[in-house]
Design brief:
- The protein is α/β, with parallel strands linked by helices and about 350 residues long.
- It has three domains: about 5-90, 3-Layer(aba) Sandwich (Udp-n-acetylmuramoylalanyl-d-glutamate--2,6- Diaminopimelate Ligase, Chain: A, domain 1); about 105-300, UDP N-Acetylglucosamine Acyltransferase, domain 1 (3 Solenoid); about 310-340.
- The termini are far apart.
- About 35% of the residues are buried.
């Protein structure tokens, strides 16, 4: 169990301490569930009613909320960001692997850095380079000539194909596949001719990729995931997609081939971006949105309809199909009205 005093946390967060700075904190919890020894936080005003009743030993608060709280507190500019940093400090997640398991298969041409851990039944291919303190979980496969940067962690059963480069301090969750072939074919009189996918995948530093996500290799040039990108579970990223720095993509989303997503974008869950499109830096795509044309200016974009009773939805679907005819009729009426003037 990790332990840290309120004083030590205050130093880590550059926070103002209110109350007993010798208190020992062992973990974090919500205001409602916290018990003695735990640190909580208030980041959303709708939970302010829980503040007085909380059993937490201390709470992360803004200056304004701290004025009306009598207990122990760390006063910070952004309680939620501070909570994330404390949660990292007190994280008890086990390592993906410890040492190199006897059943792991490591090609003699692979270069293994200091402190690397490789789990049971993992396979490390020819000419692979693993940086210092990389952790490779049980059952992982790292293909020929791939490079994994220092302190990057692969959970169990991740598959990394050949010529994939992953940066430092990344996390890849279980059953994700990186470097599989993109969906590239030519059609000859009804027959599909496969186009070999000879590009690779290039992933920057501090990237996290969720479970069961697929990232295809490039057809000729590389698929690129830049620094700080976070990708949720079950996301499909097709060949030659480029995702800019610090963009976030929620679960079940699809990025079609050769689409370019800018920096600092947020892509809501279940969204789809058509191929060969560009999305401007800082764009926010609402969940379930289908992006079928380029977005040149940042903003919030949506296309999903709200849930409604099925009978009403059916009627509205029919009306939606009539919109073009209705539009033309209105235009004709406008012309007639102008003629009468």
């Amino acid at each position: 169990m990790q332990k840290v005093t309120l004083k030590e946390l205050g130093q880590q967060l550059a926070a103002k301490i209110k109350g007993d700075d010798t208190l020992v904190i062992t973990s974090v919890a919500t205001l409602e569930d916290a018990v003695q020894g735990q640190l909580s936080f208030l980041a959303n005003s709708k939970y302010r009613a829980q503040l007085e009743a909380t059993q937490a030993s201390a709470v992360l608060l803004s200056e304004k909320d701290a004025e009306c709280y009598q207990g122990n507190a760390l006063i910070v500019a952004d309680p939620y960001v501070a909570f994330a940093r404390v949660a990292q400090l007190l994280d008890t997640t086990p390592k993906q692997a410890v040492g190199i398991h006897p059943s792991a298969q490591v090609d003699p041409t692979a270069i293994i850095g200091e402190g690397v851990a490789i789990g049971a039944n993992a396979v490390i291919g020819a000419k692979v380079i693993l940086g210092e303190h990389v952790q490779i979980g049980a059952g992982c496969v790292v293909g020929e000539s791939s490079i994994i940067g220092s302190h990057t962690r692969l959970w169990a059963n991740v598959t990394i194909y050949h010529d994939v480069h992953i940066g430092q301090q990344c996390i890849v969750h279980s059953s994700t596949v990186i470097g599989s072939d993109g969906f590239g074919y030519a059609n000859e009189r009804g027959n599909w001719i496969k186009i070999p996918q000879t590009g690779g995948v290039r992933i920057g530093n501090n990237v996290e990729i969720g479970a069961c996500t697929s990232i295809d290799r490039g057809a000729l040039s590389h698929t690129e995931i830049h620094d700080g990108v976070i990708i949720d579970n079950q996301v499909q990223i097709a060949h030659n997609v480029v995702i800019g720095q610090n963009t976030a993509i929620a679960g079940g989303s699809i990025m079609a081939g050769s689409s370019t997503i800018g920096k600092y974008c947020i892509i809501g869950g279940g969204s789809a971006v058509a191929g060969h499109l560009s999305i401007a830096d800082g764009t926010h795509i609402s969940g379930g949105t289908n992006v079928t044309s380029e977005i040149r200016e940042k903003g919030i974009y949506s296309s999903a309809t709200i849930a409604m009773e099925n009978k009403l939805w059916r009627r509205n679907t029919v009306r939606f199909r009539q919109l073009d005819d209705l539009f033309n009729r209105v235009k004709q009426l406008e012309k007639s009205a102008k003629g009468d003037e």
